[in-house]
Task: inverse folding
Protein backbone atom coordinates (compact mmCIF):
# COMPACT_ATOMS: atom_id res chain seq x y z
CA UNK A 1 0.00 0.00 0.00
CA UNK A 2 1.16 3.54 -0.82
CA UNK A 3 -0.20 7.03 -0.10
CA UNK A 4 0.53 9.80 -2.60
CA UNK A 5 -1.51 12.62 -1.05
CA UNK A 6 -0.71 13.78 2.50
CA UNK A 7 -0.19 16.98 4.49
CA UNK A 8 2.08 17.87 7.41
CA UNK A 9 1.82 20.72 9.90
CA UNK A 10 3.98 22.76 7.54
CA UNK A 11 0.68 23.29 5.71
CA UNK A 12 -2.71 22.41 7.19
CA UNK A 13 -2.06 18.91 8.56
CA UNK A 14 -1.53 18.23 12.26
CA UNK A 15 1.39 15.75 12.11
CA UNK A 16 4.94 17.05 12.01
CA UNK A 17 6.97 15.70 9.09
CA UNK A 18 8.76 13.36 11.52
CA UNK A 19 5.46 12.11 12.98
CA UNK A 20 4.04 11.52 9.51
CA UNK A 21 7.07 9.41 8.55
CA UNK A 22 6.63 7.56 11.84
CA UNK A 23 2.99 6.80 11.13
CA UNK A 24 3.77 5.72 7.56
CA UNK A 25 6.41 3.33 8.86
CA UNK A 26 4.14 2.04 11.61
CA UNK A 27 1.38 1.07 9.15
CA UNK A 28 3.91 -0.32 6.68
CA UNK A 29 3.43 2.02 3.73
CA UNK A 30 5.64 1.12 0.76
CA UNK A 31 5.85 4.76 -0.37
CA UNK A 32 4.68 8.13 0.93
CA UNK A 33 4.32 11.42 -0.95
CA UNK A 34 4.08 14.64 1.01
CA UNK A 35 1.92 17.10 -0.92
CA UNK A 36 1.64 20.14 1.32
CA UNK A 37 -0.14 23.23 0.02
CA UNK A 38 2.31 25.72 -1.56
CA UNK A 39 5.41 24.51 0.33
CA UNK A 40 8.24 21.96 0.24
CA UNK A 41 9.24 22.55 3.86
CA UNK A 42 7.43 19.47 5.17
CA UNK A 43 9.08 17.25 2.58
CA UNK A 44 12.52 18.75 3.26
CA UNK A 45 12.14 18.09 6.98
CA UNK A 46 10.82 14.56 6.47
CA UNK A 47 13.70 13.44 4.22
CA UNK A 48 16.28 12.51 6.85
CA UNK A 49 13.63 10.72 8.94
CA UNK A 50 12.45 8.73 5.92
CA UNK A 51 16.02 7.83 5.02
CA UNK A 52 16.64 6.55 8.55
CA UNK A 53 13.39 4.57 8.52
CA UNK A 54 14.04 3.14 5.05
CA UNK A 55 10.78 4.64 3.80
CA UNK A 56 10.43 5.62 0.15
CA UNK A 57 9.52 9.31 0.27
CA UNK A 58 8.33 11.34 -2.70
CA UNK A 59 8.26 15.09 -3.09
CA UNK A 60 4.95 16.59 -4.09
CA UNK A 61 3.06 19.83 -3.77
CA UNK A 62 -0.62 20.82 -3.95
CA UNK A 63 -1.55 24.14 -5.54
CA UNK A 64 -4.78 26.05 -6.04
CA UNK A 65 -5.56 27.22 -9.54
CA UNK A 66 -8.38 29.01 -11.34
CA UNK A 67 -10.37 26.97 -13.84
CA UNK A 68 -13.52 28.37 -15.45
CA UNK A 69 -13.96 30.79 -12.58
CA UNK A 70 -13.63 28.21 -9.78
CA UNK A 71 -10.76 27.17 -7.55
CA UNK A 72 -9.39 23.80 -8.69
CA UNK A 73 -6.49 22.09 -6.93
CA UNK A 74 -3.53 20.60 -8.75
CA UNK A 75 -0.89 18.15 -7.54
CA UNK A 76 2.66 17.97 -8.83
CA UNK A 77 5.08 15.04 -8.49
CA UNK A 78 8.61 14.31 -9.68
CA UNK A 79 9.72 17.93 -9.90
CA UNK A 80 13.45 18.30 -10.32
CA UNK A 81 15.17 18.07 -6.97
CA UNK A 82 16.07 20.65 -5.81
CA UNK A 83 13.27 22.51 -7.60
CA UNK A 84 14.40 24.75 -10.47
CA UNK A 85 14.90 28.40 -9.52
CA UNK A 86 11.99 29.54 -11.71
CA UNK A 87 9.64 27.05 -10.08
CA UNK A 88 10.72 28.05 -6.59
CA UNK A 89 10.15 31.73 -7.39
CA UNK A 90 6.70 30.90 -8.69
CA UNK A 91 5.89 29.07 -5.45
CA UNK A 92 7.14 32.05 -3.42
CA UNK A 93 4.77 34.31 -5.38
CA UNK A 94 1.90 32.04 -4.33
CA UNK A 95 2.99 32.17 -0.71
CA UNK A 96 2.96 35.98 -0.96
CA UNK A 97 -0.56 35.97 -2.44
CA UNK A 98 -1.64 33.70 0.43
CA UNK A 99 -0.17 36.06 3.06
CA UNK A 100 -2.00 38.99 1.50
CA UNK A 101 -5.23 36.98 1.46
CA UNK A 102 -4.72 36.09 5.13
CA UNK A 103 -4.35 39.75 6.11
CA UNK A 104 -7.55 40.66 4.29
CA UNK A 105 -9.37 37.67 5.75
CA UNK A 106 -8.34 38.60 9.31
CA UNK A 107 -9.57 42.16 8.71
CA UNK A 108 -12.90 40.91 7.39
CA UNK A 109 -13.36 38.60 10.37
CA UNK A 110 -12.65 41.49 12.76
CA UNK A 111 -15.24 43.60 10.96
CA UNK A 112 -17.71 40.70 11.25
CA UNK A 113 -17.26 40.65 15.04
CA UNK A 114 -15.09 37.52 15.27
CA UNK A 115 -11.62 39.03 15.63
CA UNK A 116 -8.56 36.87 14.99
CA UNK A 117 -5.07 38.22 14.50
CA UNK A 118 -2.25 36.85 12.39
CA UNK A 119 -0.12 36.75 15.54
CA UNK A 120 -2.55 34.33 17.13
CA UNK A 121 -2.42 32.17 14.00
CA UNK A 122 1.35 32.30 13.66
CA UNK A 123 2.23 30.56 16.90
CA UNK A 124 5.14 28.14 16.64
CA UNK A 125 6.67 30.21 13.83
CA UNK A 126 4.49 28.62 11.19
CA UNK A 127 5.05 30.15 7.79
CA UNK A 128 2.06 28.88 5.90
CA UNK A 129 -1.39 29.74 7.23
CA UNK A 130 -4.43 28.22 5.58
CA UNK A 131 -8.14 28.61 6.24
CA UNK A 132 -8.31 25.49 8.46
CA UNK A 133 -5.96 27.34 10.86
CA UNK A 134 -8.43 30.22 10.99
CA UNK A 135 -11.21 27.70 11.63
CA UNK A 136 -9.31 25.98 14.46
CA UNK A 137 -8.57 29.31 16.13
CA UNK A 138 -12.22 30.38 15.84
CA UNK A 139 -13.22 27.15 17.60
CA UNK A 140 -10.60 27.75 20.32
CA UNK A 141 -11.86 31.29 20.85
CA UNK A 142 -15.41 30.00 21.18
CA UNK A 143 -16.84 31.88 18.16
CA UNK A 144 -18.01 28.63 16.58
CA UNK A 145 -18.52 25.07 17.74
CA UNK A 146 -16.74 23.31 14.90
CA UNK A 147 -14.53 23.69 11.84
CA UNK A 148 -17.59 23.05 9.67
CA UNK A 149 -19.46 25.92 11.31
CA UNK A 150 -16.45 28.22 10.80
CA UNK A 151 -16.36 27.36 7.10
CA UNK A 152 -20.12 27.50 6.63
CA UNK A 153 -20.53 30.87 8.32
CA UNK A 154 -17.29 32.65 7.52
CA UNK A 155 -14.61 30.91 5.46
CA UNK A 156 -16.16 28.92 2.63
CA UNK A 157 -16.28 30.36 -0.89
CA UNK A 158 -19.99 30.89 -0.34
CA UNK A 159 -19.61 32.41 3.16
CA UNK A 160 -19.65 35.95 4.52
CA UNK A 161 -15.95 36.67 4.94
CA UNK A 162 -14.48 34.76 1.99
CA UNK A 163 -11.52 36.48 0.39
CA UNK A 164 -10.44 35.10 -2.98
CA UNK A 165 -6.75 34.43 -3.31
CA UNK A 166 -4.88 35.35 -6.44
CA UNK A 167 -4.53 32.02 -8.18
CA UNK A 168 -2.73 31.10 -11.39
CA UNK A 169 -4.89 29.77 -14.19
CA UNK A 170 -5.05 25.98 -14.44
CA UNK A 171 -3.23 26.09 -17.76
CA UNK A 172 -0.48 28.34 -16.43
CA UNK A 173 0.02 26.09 -13.40
CA UNK A 174 0.25 22.97 -15.56
CA UNK A 175 2.88 24.69 -17.71
CA UNK A 176 4.92 25.75 -14.69
CA UNK A 177 4.84 22.22 -13.28
CA UNK A 178 5.92 20.66 -16.56
CA UNK A 179 8.65 23.26 -17.05
CA UNK A 180 9.88 22.30 -13.57
CA UNK A 181 10.13 18.68 -14.67
CA UNK A 182 6.98 17.74 -12.78
CA UNK A 183 3.93 15.61 -13.48
CA UNK A 184 0.64 17.52 -13.04
CA UNK A 185 -2.19 15.46 -11.51
CA UNK A 186 -5.79 16.53 -10.86
CA UNK A 187 -6.68 15.64 -7.24
CA UNK A 188 -10.17 14.79 -5.92
CA UNK A 189 -12.07 15.37 -9.18
CA UNK A 190 -15.28 14.89 -7.19
CA UNK A 191 -14.80 18.42 -5.79
CA UNK A 192 -15.46 19.91 -9.19
CA UNK A 193 -19.12 20.79 -9.20
CA UNK A 194 -20.27 19.51 -12.57
CA UNK A 195 -22.44 16.78 -14.06
CA UNK A 196 -20.55 13.69 -15.26
CA UNK A 197 -20.91 14.91 -18.85
CA UNK A 198 -19.60 18.37 -18.00
CA UNK A 199 -16.79 16.88 -15.92
CA UNK A 200 -15.72 14.76 -18.86
CA UNK A 201 -15.64 17.88 -21.03
CA UNK A 202 -13.48 19.62 -18.42
CA UNK A 203 -11.10 16.66 -18.15
CA UNK A 204 -10.72 16.57 -21.93
CA UNK A 205 -9.88 20.27 -21.93
CA UNK A 206 -7.47 19.91 -18.99
CA UNK A 207 -5.77 17.09 -20.88
CA UNK A 208 -5.30 19.35 -23.87
CA UNK A 209 -3.80 21.94 -21.49
CA UNK A 210 -1.14 19.41 -20.47
CA UNK A 211 -2.64 17.58 -17.50
CA UNK A 212 -0.99 14.15 -17.23
CA UNK A 213 -2.71 12.39 -14.36
CA UNK A 214 -5.91 12.12 -12.34
CA UNK A 215 -6.40 11.05 -8.73
CA UNK A 216 -8.70 8.09 -9.17
CA UNK A 217 -8.29 6.83 -5.59
CA UNK A 218 -9.18 9.33 -2.84
CA UNK A 219 -10.84 9.04 0.58
CA UNK A 220 -13.81 11.12 -0.56
CA UNK A 221 -14.60 9.03 -3.64
CA UNK A 222 -17.46 6.53 -3.69
CA UNK A 223 -16.79 3.22 -5.49
CA UNK A 224 -18.90 4.52 -8.40
CA UNK A 225 -16.88 7.72 -8.63
CA UNK A 226 -13.63 5.74 -8.52
CA UNK A 227 -14.85 3.62 -11.43
CA UNK A 228 -15.94 6.66 -13.41
CA UNK A 229 -12.59 8.44 -12.92
CA UNK A 230 -10.71 5.26 -13.87
CA UNK A 231 -12.72 5.12 -17.09
CA UNK A 232 -11.92 8.78 -17.80
CA UNK A 233 -8.23 8.06 -17.15
CA UNK A 234 -8.30 5.27 -19.73
CA UNK A 235 -10.28 7.27 -22.27
CA UNK A 236 -8.06 10.36 -22.08
CA UNK A 237 -4.78 8.51 -21.52
CA UNK A 238 -4.20 10.01 -18.08
CA UNK A 239 -2.01 8.35 -15.45
CA UNK A 240 -3.84 7.13 -12.36
CA UNK A 241 -2.86 8.41 -8.92
CA UNK A 242 -4.20 7.88 -5.43
CA UNK A 243 -3.93 9.02 -1.86
CA UNK A 244 -5.84 9.62 1.34
CA UNK A 245 -5.41 13.43 1.62
CA UNK A 246 -4.34 12.76 5.20
CA UNK A 247 -4.44 15.86 7.44
CA UNK A 248 -4.03 14.16 10.87
CA UNK A 249 -6.42 15.42 13.54
CA UNK A 250 -7.36 18.31 11.23
CA UNK A 251 -9.47 15.72 9.32
CA UNK A 252 -9.88 13.01 11.94
CA UNK A 253 -11.97 10.63 9.81
CA UNK A 254 -9.22 10.19 7.24
CA UNK A 255 -6.53 7.62 8.10
CA UNK A 256 -3.13 7.55 6.45
CA UNK A 257 -3.06 4.94 3.68
CA UNK A 258 -6.48 3.46 4.32
CA UNK A 259 -8.70 6.55 4.03
CA UNK A 260 -12.21 6.69 5.51
CA UNK A 261 -13.42 3.39 6.97
CA UNK A 262 -10.65 1.59 5.07
CA UNK A 263 -11.97 2.63 1.66
CA UNK A 264 -8.46 2.96 0.20
CA UNK A 265 -5.63 0.58 -0.59
CA UNK A 266 -3.50 2.07 -3.36
CA UNK A 267 -1.09 -0.53 -4.75
CA UNK A 268 2.60 0.17 -5.42
CA UNK A 269 1.98 -0.47 -9.13
CA UNK A 270 0.25 2.95 -9.32
CA UNK A 271 3.55 4.61 -8.45
CA UNK A 272 5.45 2.46 -10.93
CA UNK A 273 3.04 3.50 -13.70
CA UNK A 274 3.36 7.18 -12.78
CA UNK A 275 7.15 6.86 -12.81
CA UNK A 276 7.15 5.22 -16.21
CA UNK A 277 6.24 8.63 -17.65
CA UNK A 278 9.43 10.18 -16.33
P1 LIG B 1 -6.62 27.80 1.81
O1 LIG B 1 -5.56 27.11 1.01
O2 LIG B 1 -6.06 28.64 2.91
O3 LIG B 1 -7.60 28.55 0.95
O4 LIG B 1 -7.44 26.64 2.55
C1 LIG B 1 -7.94 25.59 1.78
C2 LIG B 1 -8.15 24.37 2.64
O5 LIG B 1 -9.26 24.58 3.48
C3 LIG B 1 -8.48 23.14 1.81
O6 LIG B 1 -7.32 22.46 1.42
C4 LIG B 1 -9.31 22.33 2.75
O7 LIG B 1 -8.47 21.52 3.56
C5 LIG B 1 -9.98 23.35 3.64
N1 LIG B 1 -11.38 23.64 3.27
C6 LIG B 1 -11.82 24.35 2.20
N2 LIG B 1 -13.17 24.45 2.20
C7 LIG B 1 -13.60 23.77 3.29
C8 LIG B 1 -14.89 23.52 3.86
N3 LIG B 1 -16.01 23.97 3.31
N4 LIG B 1 -14.93 22.78 5.01
C9 LIG B 1 -13.80 22.32 5.58
N5 LIG B 1 -12.55 22.53 5.10
C10 LIG B 1 -12.44 23.25 3.96
MN1 LIG C 1 -5.63 20.93 3.11
MN1 LIG D 1 -7.09 19.59 -2.27
MN1 LIG E 1 -4.76 17.83 -0.18
Result:
Amino acid sequence: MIDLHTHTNESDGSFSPEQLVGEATRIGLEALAITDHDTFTGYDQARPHAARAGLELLCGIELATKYRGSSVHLLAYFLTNPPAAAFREWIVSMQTARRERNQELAAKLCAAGVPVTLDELGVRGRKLIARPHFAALMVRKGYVKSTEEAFDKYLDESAACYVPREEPSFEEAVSHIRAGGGLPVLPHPNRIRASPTKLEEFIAEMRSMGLEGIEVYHSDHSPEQTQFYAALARKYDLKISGGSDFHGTAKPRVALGTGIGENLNVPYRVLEDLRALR
